[in-house]
Amino acid sequence: MIKRIYKSKLTELLKLFPVVAIIGARQVGKTTLATKLIDGEREYFNLDDIATLNIAKKNPEHILDKNSPVTIDEIQRAPELLLEIKKRVDNNKIPGKFLITGSANIELLPKLQESLAGRIVFIEMFPVTLFEQFSDRDMPGIVNVLETGALNTGGNKKIVNPINLMDEIIFGSYPDLVLNKSHLYKDHWYDGYIKTYLERDVGYLSNIRSIGDYQRVLALSSFRIANIISLTELSKECGLKLMTLKRYFNLLAISYQFYQLLPFYRNIGKRFVKTPKLYSYDSGLSAYLQGLKNLLDVERLNRSGPLIENRIVTELKALLSVYTMGAKMYFYNVHACGEIDLVIEHKGRLLPIEIKSTANIDKINLKTIENFQNNFQDESGLAIIIYLGAELLEIRDNIFLVPWQHLLL
């Protein structure tokens, strides 16, 4: 079984809150976390089971009014249960009474806003991180960097056993794929995943007239990962009205296929880009939707840059959600001054991070990073350039070239 980073956090939250929700895409491991990785006896109900779903809709008391704690899997299939849970929580706030999972971001579903707001705490679960696969440390390197505002340059600065990041991207990061790394298995798994997602979740979450149109939006969005997203341009390419495209795009976010990174900007007289960038929760699925079946396809079509940036940004997003409460992630882009891939804000400090998809860097343009450090000198000291090389190097005062494994493992 894969080591997951959420067990301790879930155990602690169940001691404090009456309702805890584990949310994330299908197949990320929510059910395993909710049923096999926590201690104690709980009544378990899976709403993917039609008979159980019918009971939940017609006689919710048969599920909710148990003496023991209750776990409800795939709550988005019966969102009306949220109101029933609210009634019981308002009468008796028993810590850990209800553990629910959802393959939709129920924070964005209207019924939640009418019911459990202020009574529920969330754990957002991601596909398997590289830290979970390969590290034997208590926490990843990025945590120490953010907590101290400094980079540990002591000890071994060189990666001895480098991991092929592109291999990990191509094979995907869902648990089944991590445990079965073969191209044949991967292709069949993704094909089945897309069909299940389209036929099951999309149907429950929204009344979509054309699944074909929605699937085209899903595929074309994958070509735009790690890039600023224009819904107007995407609607034209898809041949859809802008309002329809926005509805589909919202559904992609609710169902944990894509997320957006907002730009970092402050009023300092600069012309900031204020349009968000698009990222996928699983770079492997995006590669599959682009028709990239192996490393040769990636190299031939020159797609390594967006895929690597997407994977690293998503890895950091997953790790920060568990280890650094309150950390915020942005990108930085000023017209005519260039872009910084990532800015992490934590404890009053700003950490600019550039991501390079190569191991050999001869020349690096540091102008944008230096401008950022000058503009935010009271908040920004350290700057990092993540790359695929093996050695940690200081290339300018407080600007470091850092192997990705130093931060993510």
Brief description of this entry?
The chain is α/β, with parallel strands linked by helices and 409 residues long.
Helical residue percent band: 40-55%
How many strands in all? 14
Chain-averaged pLDDT: 91
Radius of gyration: 22 Å
Largest sheet: 6 strands, mixed
How much of the sequence is in beta strands?
15-25%
Instruction: Give me the number of helical elements.
Output: 19
Low-confidence stretches: none
Measured between the Cα atoms of the first and last residue, the distance is 19 Å
User: What is the molecular shape?
Assistant: globular
Order of strands side by side in the largest beta sheet?
A: 9-10-11-12-14-13
Q: How many structural domains does the protein architecture include?
A: 2
Entry keywords:
single chain, 409 residues, alpha/beta, Rossmann fold, six-stranded mixed β-sheet, five-stranded parallel β-sheet, 19 helices, 14 strands, 42% helix
Please give a structural write-up:
With 409 residues, the chain is α/β, with parallel strands linked by helices. 42% of the residues lie in helices and 17% in strands. The chain is built from 19 helices and 14 strands. The protein has helices at 7-14, 30-36, 50-58, 61-64, 81-91, 110-113, 130-134, 141-148, 165-171, 175-179, 183-205, 211-222, 231-238, 242-254, 283-289, 295-300, 304-323, 367-375, 404-408; strands at residues 19-23, 43-46, 70-73, 98-102, 120-124, 227-228, 258-261, 277-280, 328-334, 338-346, 349-355, 383-387, 393-396, 399-403. A six-stranded mixed β-sheet has the order 9-10-11-12-14-13, with helices on both faces. Strands 2-3-4-1-5 form a five-stranded parallel β-sheet. Strand 3 (70-73), helix 5 and strand 4 (98-102) form a beta-alpha-beta unit. The protein starts with 6 loop residues before the first helix and ends with a helix.
